[in-house]
Design brief:
By secondary structure, the chain is of the alpha+beta class. The protein is built from 7 helices and 14 strands. The protein has 2 domains: about 170 residues, 2-Layer Sandwich (Fructose-1,6-Bisphosphatase, Chain A, domain 1), CATH 3.30.540; about 120 residues, D-Maltodextrin-Binding Protein, domain 2 (3-Layer(aba) Sandwich), CATH 3.40.190. Helix content is about 30%, strand content about 25%. The strands form 3 sheets. The protein has a 7-stranded mixed β-sheet, sandwiched between helices. The structure holds 2,5-anhydro-1,6-di-O-phosphono-D-glucitol and manganese (II) ion (MN) (2 copies). The site of one manganese (II) ion has 4 residues, from strand 4.
Length: about 300
């Protein structure tokens, strides 16, 4: 079954369907750019969070924005690389994205990805991640793959011979294997609870699987059916680094739809109000039992 057939089979609304197909097309362009352009080339410009932009960050952003601008179902777009939210139309879907997550890994040829959340309507401020009607990630690795949810389970699609084929249906986080992806380890010097959690994982012989890219790390948890990804805060950055709207909320929906859990450390991540488009949040996400262990240590 291909992506369009899958979306029709779950009676996906036609506007949303066209946006998802457009995003898939954009990802093909980004994969091509990532594979062939100068990796790791830095610009002098900064993004809205004050981080130095890579040429491919900007290129990826433009590929998505240019495609969505001419889709009549898109009201607004928001991007990690853009200060404001360009309004294209006064109705439709708001599409928010991190066009190229993990761009600092480009020069060493590790996997990178795109993260997208989709909301019905125009504005997203004051809403929560639970309002997302769809979430998806694209993984730019040896293969071009996507994880998608339209709130009817989480499914993997693979770009094979010019077509997006459904390759894993109804992914579930139900495996027993112990696996951890501990982000922001530099926090252990000031966050002693996090140090205790790390020691718990070490003492219990968890397998370390951390790439430094949230997309391949979460993709791995989904495909292996187990594991936990953490990015806590610490003294210099109490909310950590990752962004609620562009990174954490879409991941939380994909993981919940696979039977997992995502928290900011105190509340369900998808219940966290969006106060500011670029706001950061701590995150503990993965198989429910593993997230609960992390929350026991950190609470
Ligand atoms: P981006 O490249 O979009 O700025 O984000 C990268 C993110 C995420 O992919 C990864 O989990 C995290 O940054 C790694 O953070 P550290 O730099 O703190 O290791
Ligand atoms: Mn990112
Ligand atoms: Mn990015």
């Amino acid at each position: 079954m291909n992506l369009k057939e899958y979306l029709n089979s779950v009676e996906c609304e036609t506007g949303l369907l066209s946006i998802i197909l457009d995003l898939a097309r954009a990802s093909e362009g980004i994969y091509d750019a990532v594979s062939t352009n100068e990796a790791g080339k830095k610009l002098t410009s900064e993004n809205a969070s004050g981080e130095t932009q890579m040429a491919l960050d900007v290129r990826s952003n433009n590929i998505i924005t240019d495609i969505l601008e001419v889709n009549e179902n898109v009201s607004v777009v928001g991007s990690e690389e853009l200060e404001d939210l360009p309004v294209f139309r006064d109705s439709g879907y708001a599409v928010v994205y991190d066009p190229l997550d993990g761009s600092s890994l480009l020069d060493v040829n590790l996997a990178v990805g795109t993260i997208v959340g989709i909301y019905e309507g125009v504005g997203i401020l004051g809403r929560t991640g639970d309002d997302q009607v769809a979430a998806l990630i694209f993984v730019y690795g040896p293969r071009l793959t996507a994880m998608l949810t339209v709130r009817k389970g989480t499914h993997e699609f693979t770009f094979i011979d010019g077509e997006w084929i459904l390759t894993r249906e109804n992914i579930k986080l139900d495996k027993e294997k112990k696996m951890y992806a501990p982000g922001n380890l530099r926090a252990v010097s000031s966050n002693l609870k996090y140090r205790d959690l790390i020691n718990y994982w070490l003492d219990n012989q968890y397998t370390l699987r951390y790439s430094g890219g949230m997309v391949p790390d979460i993709n791995q948890i989904l495909l292996k059916g187990c594991g936990v990804f953490t990015y806590p805060g610490y003294d210099v950055a109490p909310n950590g680094k990752l962004r609620l709207v562009f990174e954490c909320a879409p991941m939380a929906l994909l993981i919940e739809q696979a039977g997992g859990k995502a928290s900011d450390g105190s509340i369900r991540l998808l219940d966290k109000p969006i106060g500011e488009i670029h706001q950061r949040t701590t995150i503990f996400i993965g198989k429910t039992e593993e997230v609960d262990i992390a929350l026991d240590y950190l609470g």
